[in-house]
Every structure is written in structure tokens, then in C-alpha cells.
Specification:
The chain is of the alpha/beta class and 322 residues long. It contains 12 helices and 13 strands. The chain is globular and about 55 Å long. Bound molecules: zinc ion.
Length: 322
């Protein structure tokens, strides 16, 4: 992204993902929200980039949920009240398409245990709950849902009857408990991502699907914008990945990359960053042309970020067809 300098702190900073001491400073950026400078460190060993200092999780307060924090695109209340009326439906439909292809190809019969790690305002949980089951011909796979998050919305979802677990309860769950684990735009918020990948890898069944989405900081747009890239929000986006970084962390936890071609998730990313209805309408119209979506996907590198599966013992898993 920018020129690399050796660590001026004399090796005091270590990679927050793999512990390597070979980290280099990519640059420094002032951020208006907290009014301070942040350093961006890159680890050549695991291709992970992280922010120092970490601003803590207290930043996720009610103001943040309303989009009044460092990320103006957050709107928990609308999603909680009526997820069907939000643009996230584009993303949910896309994840549904990918998961349906994977499940019906790879899992012989239901029920499917699905954990949404970082379930936020619960839009995906409600979407999946409304779907109820995967279907292919005569076969059905009923869906059983669990969510994980902390904060007021997690409490409300628990009161609404969803099975919501805190981190301690999740850590106490047995191995291979879930067929699908989704982490949608979650890992960039986590200070130490490695133990989280270790946990979800343990909880995933052999043959199961780990659905991960997060920004790609080796995309053309990220390379062009550098630290001015809009995705760089150092108060809340504290951990940055590349396709290679994901492959490395998957391998460390016995997972194998699975690639999907995203469509609705790409549309959602574009629409959510356009603030005026006129621009959103134009973007929606342009993105009816599949080539436009492909081009945007190419610019942001969305489909280059792999998901993962856990190999079944004794044989490789067939690649998911998408
Ligand atoms: Zn590292």
C-alpha cells in the first residue's frame, strides 16, 4: 500500500495474528473519529495487517449501532426491526445461494446446524429462520440456528427466542457441532483473530462450510487508495486480510479454502456506500448487467477472498460448484 519501513520500535511489535516479529510499518493515518494517529503493521509471514493501538470493544455502543460511530454505514435498528426492507437482503440472498449449493452437494441429509458468529442485529438469523430449510428436489435439510454476539441486540435476539451464545458458552460447545458457520464482515473487528479461527475450526463438522466475508486489502481499489481507502476505519476495522492471509490462517487450523463467485454481496457493498436514493437507483440499474457486477467484483477483489471447509477424514472434499 505504502512504502515499508522497518519497525522503529526495535522489534517490540509482533504480529497479532501469528506472533511473528518480522512485522513492518506500512504507514500511519490520522483518524477523525477519535482524533488520533494509528499505525498499520504488516506481517510478511502471514500477510496480515493490523492497527495499533487497538481502540477496545467499548466503541461498540448504541451510537455505533446507529451509524454515529466511526462507521457511518451501520444501521442496526432498521435491520433489527425489518431486515427484509434493508439492502442487506442482496447479501443474504447471495449467501443463501452459495450455502444451498454447498449443502445440497456435500451434506447427504439434514438437519443443518448453522452458527452465525457475529450475528449483530440478527438479519441473517431471521432470514434463515424464515427460509426454514434447504431444499433440492424431494430432499430437505431443516435449519437449526445459533447466533453469537454481545451487546444489546444480542440480548434482544435472545429474548426473541433465538439461541444466542456468548463466547464462553460457545467455547464450551462440543467439537464438530455445526455444519455451517458464518462470519460475515466480522473478522476485521477482532483484535486477535487466530483464536477465533481456532474456535470455529473446532466447532465445524468435517465436510462443513465456513462462510467468511471481509474486505480484500490487495484489491485494485485498496492498492490505488492506500490508507485512504474508505474501508480503512482504524477504530473498528483493526484486522485486515488478503486472499493469501485467509489461506494461511485456514491451513493453520486444518481448513481448506473454498472459492465462490459473489454477486448480491458485491451489489450490497456498492449500494450501501451510496447515500442518496438517486445514486442507489442508478447503481441498481447498472448492476442488472452481470458484466458490471463482475467488473466491480474485480475492482474490490470480493470473490478472491476464499471461504473454507474442513476436510473429511481420509479423503479430500469435492470442491463446491459455484
Ligand atoms: Zn503474522
Amino acid at each position: 500500500m505504502t512504502t515499508e519501513h522497518p519497525d522503529p520500535g526495535g522489534g517490540s511489535v509482533v504480529c497479532r495474528c501469528c506472533g511473528s516479529k518480522r512485522v513492518t510499518l506500512r504507514g500511519r493515518r490520522h483518524s477523525r473519529f477519535l482524533g488520533r494517529d494509528f499505525d498499520f503493521w504488516h506481517c510478511p509471514d502471514c500477510d496480515f495487517m493490523f492497527v495499533e493501538p487497538f481502540s477496545g470493544y467499548a466503541i461498540y455502543d448504541d451510537a455505533y449501532y446507529k451509524g454515529l460511530g466511526p462507521d457511518p454505514y451501520v444501521d442496526y435498528e432498521s435491520e433489527y426491526r425489518n431486515h427484509r426492507a434493508t439492502d442487506r437482503m442482496l447479501e443474504f440472498d447471495d449467501l443463501w445461494r452459495l450455502a444451498t449449493g454447498f449443502i445440497t452437494d456435500n451434506i447427504p441429509e439434514g438437519p443443518v446446524e448453522w452458527l452465525d458468529f457475529g450475528c449483530g442485529a440478527g438479519g441473517l438469523l431471521k432470514y434463515l429462520s424464515n427460509k426454514g430449510e434447504f431444499r433440492s428436489g424431494e430432499r430437505t435439510w431443516p435449519i437449526r440456528l445459533t447466533g453469537h454476539d454481545v451487546g444489546s441486540y444480542a440480548d434482544m435476539l435472545g429474548n426473541d427466542g433465538f439461541r444466542i451464545l456468548g463466547l464462553d458458552d460457545l467455547a464450551a460447545e462440543p467439537d464438530a457441532r455445526y455444519d455451517v458457520i458464518s462470519m460475515i464482515e466480522v473478522v476485521e473487528h477482532i483484535e486477535f483473530p487466530d483464536p477465533v479461527f481456532a474456535l470455529v475450526a473446532r466447532l465445524l463438522k468435517p465436510g462443513g462450510l465456513l462462510l467468511v466475508t471481509t474486505g480484500n486489502i490487495t484489491s485494485l481499489v485498496a492498492a490505488w487508495k492506500g490508507l485512504d481507502y474508505g474501508y480503512i476505519m482504524p477504530e473498528v476495522h483493526v484486522s485486515y486480510f488478503t486472499p493469501r492471509a485467509l489461506c494461511i490462517i485456514y491451513a493453520r487450523h486444518g481448513l481448506v479454502p473454498v472459492r465462490f463467485r459473489y454477486d448480491g454481496a458485491v451489489r450490497f457493498k456498492v449500494v450501501k456506500t451510496l447515500r442518496t436514493p438517486g445514486r442507489q437507483r442508478l447503481a441498481r440499474m447498472a448492476m442488472r448487467i452481470p458484466l458490471v457486477v463482475r467488473a466491480i467484483d474485480g475492482l474490490f477483489g470480493t470473490s478472491r477472498m476464499p471461504c473454507a471447509t474442513k476436510p473429511r477424514q481420509g479423503r479430500g472434499l469435492p470442491p463446491a460448484g459455484n
